[in-house]
Amino acid sequence: MIAHAIFFYVFSIIAVVSAIMVTASKNTVHSVFFLILDFISISCLFIMIGAEFLGMIMLIVYVGAVAVLFLFVVMMLNVAQQKNQWFISKDSSKHIPIGLLISIIIFFELIIVIGGWKYKPELFNSENQNIINSVSNTHSLGQVLYTDYIHIFQISGMILLVAMIGAIVLTFRQREGVKKQSYIKQISRERAEGVEVLEVASNKGVKIDD
Amino acid sequence: MEYLNIVFQEIYKILFLLIPVLVSVAMIVWLDRRVWAFVQKRQGPNVVGPFGLLQSLADALKYIFKEIIIPASSNKVIFILAPIITMTLAMIAWAVIPFGEDQVLANINVGILYIFAVSSLGVYGIIMGGWASNSKYPFLGSIRSAAQMVSYEVSIGIIIINVLLCVGSLNLSDIVIAQKNMWFIIPLFPMFVIFFISALAETNRPPFDLPEAEAELVAGYQTEYSGMMYAMFWLGEYANILLMCALGSILFLGGWLSPIDLYPFNLIPGAIWLIFKILLLFILFALVKAIVPRYRYDQLMRLGWKIFLPLSLTYVVLTASYLFYFNLLPTN
Question: Does A82 touch chain B (CB under 8 A)?
Fold first, then answer.
């Protein structure tokens, strides 16, 4: 039990410190690396409370895919140029009130939820969600996900699909005069149409590509 | 005192697994080069030791004595962390590979997800190495590999779903035991082929070694590395290849099970069978490296997203409907 507590505190301290470092570090790429560290330590915490499926999915989805794309985008920016600018220049101050407002709202939301959960636990009726303790984590998730919560699950999938298609539609543009390779054309080329024997007059040359 | 005993026992077990893995990585490099040479009608490494078996040892010695050069404009912490992460991730995934009925370091419930998660983290070593080098070729290589590995993970994940539908458990030992009557390579043969090709792409092996394409990018993300740090990248890469071979043999070739459950084959321990299957898959990897030319980058992406993803998704639907229609869905 002591070992459990020690591991819990180690992981949660790493999670909190790296969450602070995400916002505090001046290099954007470092911020993303701290975000990844945060994800990993939170998935360790998930595994510690016995939600091993959730922990692994967190690792696969957030660390393995989402954070890679973050890193991909952030690395493309010119980091050396971006560094420090927001922290030194004077006009950064107009961002601070908005940030403060949002963080205060989140803080009060957390207080309401945690306070309610602590002093009025009957408001959050978690008993009648039929979670069976005898089977493993993955099984019990599977049993409720496609039965009780099928609509919510499908709707969230649809929302993600719509977001994906929307992003593609917004950024897709057809440009004129771009040379494209069509693999079907490349594969289906025959010798007869690909090779042409020409009589070249001396000192005249031939025009190959039009 | 008792606690310390447990710790020492576990450390002993871990070393008993890791040291053979590291030694076999060295041997496998030799095998790779020999197969490569055999296909091209060359000799390959045959000077150091019998049949050149100690060539990798000589190479390792050379790497250890070389100077480690850290570029002045690099991001030093991340530059040093990158090879360490690559190698650590390649090592820790071996914890859940079962070598026999109960010969497994950590028999966890979500073993296959664990391996999948660790192999999807593998991309970080490459990205960090490429970015921290602060140089053009490594950066291009790491950008390429990030896109490549993320795309091929998708199809590997869906192939794993195919197998899981037939097993009904995420535990690797259960997956092997479910193949007692028939290896999954027979009903899921197309998936095995796609898994093999995706594994080539996932481990950056030729013909998908775009991240380190030497004709365009010098050596990709490894360009700025030298000495032991380069060797660690290299060790991690080969350990990952071995891991993918092990995963392939567990998912499709029946893991530690013998091909036929008859008298002389029964006597051979399961671990030997698993190693034999891993070697078989690895020789296939090496043959592909020798035979196939490198893919172009857009062809690679097209193969991953437009061919493998729809094919494996269709196969999931087929498998699920077959199992459902004939009432074969595993229940436990």
Answer: no
pTM, two decimals, is 0.83
Number of C-beta neighbours around residue B86 at 10 A: 27
Do residues B232 and B226 lie in contact, with contact meaning Cβ atoms separated by under 8 Å?
Answer: no
> Over 60: is that where the pLDDT of A67 sits?
yes
User: Would you list the DSSP string of A6-26?
Assistant: HHHHHHHHHHHHHHHHHHH-S
CA atoms within 13 A on the CB side of B112: 26
Residue B298's closest CA among A68, A176, A173, A180?
Answer: A180
Give, in order, the Cα–Cα distances in Å from B24 to each of A20, B19, B242, B271: 43, 8, 9, 14
**Cβ separation A72–B147 shorter than 8 A:** yes
- The per-residue pLDDT for range B287-330, each reduced to its tens digit, is 998 888 888 888 888 888 888 999 999 999 999 899 888 887 77
Residue B46 three-state SS: coil
Q: If contacts are CB pairs under 8 Å, which of residues 8-47 in chain A contact chain B?
A: 29, 33, 36
Predicted ipTM > 0.90: no
**Residues 6+ positions from B163 with CB-CB distance below 8 Å:** B175, B184, B188, B191, B251, B252
Q: Residue B249: which residues within 8 A CB-CB, separation 6 or more? A: B255, B274, B277, B278, B280, B281
Mean pLDDT of chain A: 80
Long-range (24+ apart) CB contacts under 8 A made by B151-155 are B151/B201, B151/B301, B151/B304, B151/B305, B152/B198, B152/B201, B152/B202, B152/B304, B152/B308, B153/A64, B153/A65, B153/B116, B153/B119, B153/B120, B153/B202, B154/B304, B154/B305, B154/B309, B155/B194, B155/B198, B155/B304, B155/B308, B155/B309, B155/B312
| Residue (of B202, B249, B258, B10) closest to B89 by Cα position | B202
The answer to whether the CB of B204 falls within 8 A of the CB of B237 is yes
Q: What is the pLDDT of residues B213-270, one digit of tens each?
A: 767 777 778 888 888 888 888 888 898 899 999 999 998 888 888 877 777 777 778 7
When pLDDT is averaged across residues A27-32 and rounded to a whole number, the result is 83
CB pairs < 8 Å spanning A and B = 63
Is the minimum CB–CB distance between A53 and chain B shorter than 8 Å?
yes
The span from the CA of A161 to the CA of B167, in Å, is 29
* C-alpha to C-alpha distance for B140 and B199, rounded to whole angstroms: 22
* pLDDT for residue B235: 87
Chain B touched by A141 (CB under 8 Å): no
- pLDDT tens track for A128-144: 555 556 677 777 787 78
Most confident residue range from A29-38, A68-77, A161-170, B45-54: A161-170
